[in-house]
């Protein structure tokens, strides 16, 4: 209990610090809208100019250091076209590069082309008669991408807002009804609280940092601290999902652990371990990529954060598959007369997919192509930002189903496959035939706990 209070106090202090930083962001905003727009334009112009000058310097260094072209036949000389550097190419070929990230409306995933004609000269535009590079594809889908980005932005804000409201209601129920006190509910409380903290920090980050280009360009310490808190709480989300998976797997599969589990290890894993990759990332980022408030994604340092998260998701995937295996095996042996019962339990178990974060294992890589990327972004945003809200709706639907079924039948078999986490605990208790007090329900039976458990 003392450790829980200390962790809660630490998180509240972190949120208070982030709130104060947010107030500072808005307090230091330029009061005049016209002046603010002019300042942002000047800042963006300075950043763009610095990027182009750096690329030009590196290009001239490359031109002088690369070996001389010695192949036979005509070729186009290496050159700097004002934005990109081009190497020697044989006549009659088309050179291709990625679009630069100098401008906000340029998409770095699109292609730039430069044609070397058969005579060994770079292509000249017929209107200007000057050497010309085709950058038209870099911003051809700018309007559509901006529209998609705005849709995803509002989708994230609304989703996190609904999740915060739903989670706070659930936490209020858990804390108000003392009869719900048990280890499983304690894990739910911590998982929900980590979701609330992450949603609050995400909304603050999206509204106060990501939308403030001037702040990102100036790269103050305050926004880096907010990014550190965001990455830490994101890790807490997934490791509390892992804690849920470990506890559920232990409860169902490892029947020998009938005694009370020690939650201290869950606290250390859920709240303590994510500090390690977050701190390592902060140190590495400050040494190698100390720019843009640490929110740019074009660096391999993010694997420091994403690596442990992917490992936790893979472990949860193993737990889920093993739980399904045990359910099928035990229910086949126990309910031979009811062949469809274990299939209901398996379908109910699949509800654990969003709870345990398995969708990130099922869709680990972002596909190539504009349409495929948009579909992927929408699907993942809905799964990420609305999973808490949908889980609460699912819980209320399960409550309605349970009440409806109990009005017609009081059989234990029907109640076994009616809901997710509570139903799985029932199957475990039925299959292994050990006493339900292993979950420390404060004298309450599972029938009393079904209605209120997520």
TrEMBL record:
UniProt keyword list: Cell membrane, Disulfide bond, G-protein coupled receptor, Glycoprotein, Membrane, Receptor, Signal, Transducer, Transmembrane, Transmembrane helix
Domain G-protein coupled receptors family 2 profile per the UniProt entry, residue ranges: 58-142, 152-399
CC annotations in GO: plasma membrane
PROSITE patterns: G_PROTEIN_RECEP_F2_1 (PS00649), G_PROTEIN_RECEP_F2_3 (PS50227), G_PROTEIN_RECEP_F2_4 (PS50261)
One MF term in the entry's GO annotations: adrenomedullin receptor activity
Predominant subcellular localization, coarse grouping: membrane
Membrane topology of the entry: Multi-pass membrane protein
Transmembrane segments: 152-177, 189-209, 229-258, 265-288, 300-324, 345-363
Pfam families: 7tm_2 (PF00002), HRM (PF02793)
Matches recorded under SMART domains: HormR
GO BP annotations, alphabetical order: adenylate cyclase-activating G protein-coupled receptor signaling pathway; angiogenesis; cell surface receptor signaling pathway
InterPro entries in the record: GPCR_2, GPCR_2-like_7TM, GPCR_2_calcitonin_rcpt_fam, GPCR_2_CGRP1_rcpt, GPCR_2_extracell_dom_sf, GPCR_2_extracellular_dom, GPCR_2_secretin-like, GPCR_2_secretin-like_CS
Subcellular location: Cell membrane
Family: Belongs to the G-protein coupled receptor 2 family.
Function recorded in the entry: Functions as G protein-coupled receptor for calcitonin-gene-related peptides and adrenomedulli. Specificity is modulated by accessory proteins. Activates cAMP-dependent pathway.
Protein name, entry field: Calcitonin gene-related peptide type 1 receptor
Organism: Buteo japonicus
Phylogenetic lineage: Eukaryota, Metazoa, Chordata, Craniata, Vertebrata
């Amino acid at each position: 209990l003392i450790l829980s209070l200390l962790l809660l106090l630490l998180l509240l202090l972190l949120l208070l610090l982030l709130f104060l930083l947010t107030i500072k962001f808005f307090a230091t905003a330029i009061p005049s809208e016209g002046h603010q727009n002019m300042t942002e334009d000047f800042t963006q112009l300075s950043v763009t100019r610095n990027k182009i000058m750096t690329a030009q310097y590196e290009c001239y260094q490359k031109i002088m250091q690369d070996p001389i072209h010695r192949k036979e036949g005509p070729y186009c000389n290496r050159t700097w076209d004002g934005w990109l550097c081009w190497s020697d190419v044989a006549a009659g070929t088309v050179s291709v590069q990625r679009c630069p990230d100098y401008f906000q409306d340029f998409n770095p995933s699109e292609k730039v082309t430069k044609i070397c004609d058969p005579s060994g000269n770079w292509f000249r535009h017929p209107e200007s008669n000057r050497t010309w590079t085709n950058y038209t594809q870099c911003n051809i889908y700018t309007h559509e991408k901006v529209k998609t980005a705005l849709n995803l932005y509002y989708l994230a804000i609304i989703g996190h807002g609904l999740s915060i409201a739903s989670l706070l209601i659930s936490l209020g129920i858990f804390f108000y009804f003392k009869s719900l006190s048990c280890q499983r509910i304690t894990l739910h409380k911590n998982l929900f609280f980590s979701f609330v903290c992450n949603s609050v920090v995400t909304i603050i980050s999206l509204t106060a940092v990501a939308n403030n280009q001037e702040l990102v360009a100036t790269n103050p310490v305050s926004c880096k601290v907010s990014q550190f808190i965001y990455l830490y709480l994101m890790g807490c989300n997934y490791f509390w999902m892992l804690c849920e998976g470990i506890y559920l797997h232990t409860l169902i599969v490892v029947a020998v652990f009938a005694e009370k589990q020690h939650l201290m290890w869950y606290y250390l894993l859920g709240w303590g371990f994510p500090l390690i990759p977050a701190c390592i990332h902060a140190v590495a980022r400050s040494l190698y990529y100390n720019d843009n408030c640490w929110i740019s994604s074009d660096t391999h340092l993010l694997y420091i954060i994403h690596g442990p998260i992917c490992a936790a998701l893979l472990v949860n995937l193993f737990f889920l598959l093993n739980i399904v295996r045990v359910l099928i095996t035990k229910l086949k042996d126990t309910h031979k007369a009811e062949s469809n019962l274990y299939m209901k339990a398996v379908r109910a178990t699949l509800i654990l997919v969003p709870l345990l974060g398995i969708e990130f294992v099922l869709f680990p890589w972002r596909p190539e192509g504009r349409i495929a990327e948009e579909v992927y972004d929408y699907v993942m945003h809905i799964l990420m930002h609305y999973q808490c809200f949908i889980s609460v709706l699912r819980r209320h639907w399960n409550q309605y189903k349970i009440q409806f079924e109990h009005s017609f039948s009081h059989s234990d078999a029907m109640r076994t496959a009616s809901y997710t986490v509570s139903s799985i605990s029932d199957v475990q208790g039925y299959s292994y035939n050990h006493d339900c007090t292993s979950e420390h329900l404060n004298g309450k039976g599972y029938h009393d706990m079904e209605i209120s458990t997520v």
